[in-house]
Amino acid sequence: METIRWNGDSVTILDQRVLPHEELYHTYVRYWDVVLAIKEMEIRGAPAIGIAAAMGIALASRNILAEGAKDLKGFKDAVGTAIQHFEKSRPTAVNLFNAAARMKKLLDSGSNAEQISQGMEAEAVAMLREDIESNRAMGRNGSRYLSDGDVVMTHCNAGALATGGYGTALGVIRAAVEENKKIQVYACETRPLLQGARLTSWELHRDGIPVTLITDNMAGYFMKKGVIKKVIVGADRIAANGDTANKIGTYSHAVLAKEHRIPFYVAAPVTTLDPATGTGDDIVIEERSVDEVAFFLSQQIAPEGITIHNPAFDVTPARYITAIITDRGVVEHPEGKGIGELLK
How do residues 250-298 score in pLDDT, each as one tens digit? Predict the structure, then answer.
């Protein structure tokens, strides 16, 4: 499947809001529509958001050229404003900011508007290719932690849909399956937007990997019963000390895994590592619309007038993480080590 594609003069995105019922692609010729696609979670997952931002910025440069930017300064100012719109679209996933930084570097160093625009297109396409390659490397690095016959639990969606292709957490599972290991997956539904139920289950079933769907609050039950042997999740930002932000509910699963002596793995590309953020306490957590909690399938399920909170992510301290698996290598037991050795 293709999550996102650069067409030369437009960006095509798979609308993940309507999966698994419909595979619907939207093609955008205006960069602002890509900003909205990120905000409204038409495309989601930290690596995929970074790629979408890069392609959206490249599209912005084309839009601004087509509108007749009068001079280099005007072009740079307009593209810089577009980059700011992308940076404000979602605050937690560091991949978005890394992608924006790569585009800013091209913008700042360029001396010709058309050449800058062409360079941004090439950079965005390169990011997509790099992401797929890094996911496969991550899979190779992580597959050794999964044994033949394992039942592996995952949370949210860290598969091909969350990346340029193949996946992070699901990439490790796919790599193990490609090595002829028999792996079963328990997918947590992931309230409130059900990425596990709608996306992870769909991906795995489509690939012929056995998957069992459970609600988020069933995880402890199946751990205590001895069903779950490993847990593997993705990440949206990993702080310098190894603390990891991921979809809300991940922290609870990590605590339960620790209690039941179940290995808990995080799989993420090095673009998700954030050495500038010291600890998980410094990670900005996105608050999303309360309607995502108050409504289910367009039906209001909560009474009017009550208080609702909807943080999109939580932070798992490094002490609960057995290993951080990346495309460059693995840090086992990151507490006290952090991520420094992966960035040398």
Answer: 999 999 999 999 999 999 999 999 999 999 999 999 999 999 999 998 8
Spatial distance between the Cα atoms of 107 and 73, rounded to a whole number of angstroms: 10
Q: From the candidates 131, 150, 216, 236, give the one annotated as an active-site residue.
A: 236
Clarify whether residues 150 and 61 are in a common domain. Answer: no
CA atoms within 13 A on the CB side of 339: 31
Q: CA–CA separation, 123 vs 129, rounded Å? A: 10
Catalytic residue status for 236:
yes
Residues 101 and 170 in one domain: no
Only one residue has tokens 């950079």, namely 123
- Is residue 309 packed enough to be buried (19+ CB in 10 Å), middle (13-18) or exposed (0-12)? exposed
Q: Would you state the pLDDT for residue 110? A: 85
All residues at 6 or more sequence positions from 248 whose CB lies less than 8 Å from its CB, including other chains: 311, 312, 313, 314
Q: What is the pTM of this model?
A: 0.94
Residues 324 and 181 in one domain: yes
CATH of the domain at 224: 3.40.50.10470
- Within 8 A by CB and 6+ apart from 163, the residues are 3, 45, 47, 48, 51, 131, 132, 135, 171
What are the pLDDT digits (tens) for 49-81? 999 999 999 999 999 999 887 689 999 999 999
146 and 109 part of one domain: no
Give the total number of structural domains in the chain: 2
